[in-house]
Amino acid sequence: MTIRSHLDGAVFADHLPGGTPRVLALHGWGRDRRDLADVLTGHSVIAVDLPGFGSSPPPPEAWGAEHYASAMAALLEEVAAPDERFVVVGHSRGGCIAACLAAARPDLVGGAVLVAAPVVRLTAPRQPAAWYRLLRGAVGRGLLPDSMLERARERRGSADYLAARGVMRDVLVRVVSESYESQLQQMECPVGLCWGADDPDVPPAVATRAVELLPDCVVLEIVAGAGHDVQRDAVAAFRGVVGQVIEAAAR
After folding, report:
1. Given CA atoms 94, 86, 251, 36 in this order, what sign does their dihedral have?
2. How would you label 149-159 residue by residue, b for 16+ Cβ within 10 Å and e otherwise?
3. How far is CA 115 from CA 25, 141, 199, in A?
């Protein structure tokens, strides 16, 4: 189905029938709605193409996770039955959006599963090199053309940055600088965390720190031998965490 929201255009989603409560599935950076839907069979799933991915158009400006969460809240308001609350499952950056959504809208979210999500910082953000800061300042003052800064960004950018286009590059720069400690502390619903012990991108120490901040963490599963795509590396463990959160949300 296609769900209209306050975003210009449409947010595309697949609605897969199943049990209750319904599950909102939020994929990670560079993925689409199929990424989690495939491993959530048996549940009633709304699997979304987040704005800028899959079939959904990009946002009108450089959104952070809270802006994405607001768009997802608008989507849920359109499809929710009276007093219905959803379990939100988010992988990687989708987990950051899930945390923001659960913190801001407890009326819509009855449970959350964060999967390998970079929700806290373990170290201070790395400052750009001095030469890059000087170049950025010169471009900002109009002393050098924008193209020089763009070439420098492409030389030092990550694979995700190089693959992004247009406003999505600005979105990526914004979200990688964010941290979500305050949102974790505001999450009133039951929360489960599922992590790969060998995750090279978001180490398990992020999960253990998140547990210290969450008011109601019902399960933390760190899966030996699994990496950043723990939902695919260890499907049974992932589904077990989702099941425990659904049970807790139903109480």
Report:
1. negative
2. beebbeeebee
3. 11, 42, 11
Instruction: Please tell me the distance from the alpha carbon of residue 32 to that of residue 116, in angstroms, as a whole number.
Output: 16
Q: For residue range 29-73, what is the model confidence (pLDDT) as tens digits?
A: 999 999 998 899 889 999 999 999 999 999 999 999 999 999 999
Instruction: Please state, in angstroms and as integers, the Cα–Cα distance from residue 34 to each residue in 12, 14, 47, 143, 213, following that order.
Output: 11, 9, 7, 46, 31
Q: What pLDDT score does 213 carry?
A: 97
Give dist(CA 210, CA 90) in Å, integer: 15
Tell me: the pLDDT tens digits for 33-43?
999 988 998 89
Please give the radius of gyration of the chain, using alpha carbons only, rounded to the nearest integer: 18
Q: What is the 3-state secondary structure (H, E, C) of 20-71?
A: CCCEEEECCCCCCCHHHHCCCCCCCEEEECCCCCCCCCCCCCCCCHHHHHHH
Residue 222: CB atoms within 10 A of its CB come to 17
Helix (H, G, I), strand (E, B) or coil at 91: strand
Contacts of 126 by beta carbon, 8 Å cutoff, 6+ apart = none
Q: Which helix (H) or strand (E) holds 7?
A: none
C-alpha 195/C-alpha 221 separation (Å) is 6
- Measured in degrees and rounded to the nearest 5, phi and psi for residue 27 equal -80, 170
Alpha carbons 175 and 10: distance in angstroms, whole number: 22
CB count, 10 Å around CB of 39?
21
Domains and CATH numbers, the chain: 2-123+179-250 (3.40.50.1820), 130-172 (no CATH)
